[in-house]
Amino acid sequence: MKSIVIANWKMNPQILREASGLFRAVAKGVRGIKNIDVVIAPPFVYLPLLEVGRGKSVVALAAQDSFWEDRGAYTGEISPTMLKALGVTYVIIGHSERRMHLGETDEMVNKKIKAVLKAGLTPVLCVGERTRERVNEIPVFVGEQVKKALVGLKKGEFKNGVIAYEPVWAIGTGTPDTPEGATRAALYIRKIVRDMLGGNVADSLRVIYGGSVNAGNAASFISRDIRGMEGMLVGGASLKAEEFIEIVRRVSAQ
Ligand code: PEP
Asked: Ligand 1, closest atom to CA 212?
């Protein structure tokens, strides 16, 4: 399975000039790197403006969120069809910062997943426990989040989808999970998806890791032989072009 590395810029950078500079630098730097999908999720306002450089590059665009309705009186919201029309291909759904600061619930996440799929976009579902579980413990809470996010989907739906396992305690803290812990979570998530949506979806799904990833630790999370982690969702380190390019390089070399 081809790996995927997604840059989550969150609410950065502050001005367009910096955003397009970072985008261009990454697009140029990853051009020759083979067998990997590279995705950048900038703030909404930059999405249409970064399109120019994208034609020549291998970088795809993601949105950091989407609303579940297509149009109407929903002040401040952005719909999946609007994103699709801008050339966006992936949408991050249920990031822990949205769950924490904006009250996003599992039910809302579920509606967003369905809307994004209906629009022909690829969801990147984020799940992760808030506090560190005991070593060797199966992340039951994460399993429940996955089930609630995917409930009501038909067998076969979510094919080619992405699930990012991001332990909340590891995000932005400088303390990543261990590769063993992350792999255990990946196997468990894939099993849940298999039970819910069937083998086709479980086999085409990419489970990726997020939480204090940097160029030094990225490769250690990738475990291809047992269908463990097959990519990364990168926050802080994605704002430094050289570091992010190095992450992409090391993941692709695994
Ligand atoms: C994230 O926000 O998705 C994330 C993984 O952040 P960081 O890499 O900064 O821990």
From this structure: 10
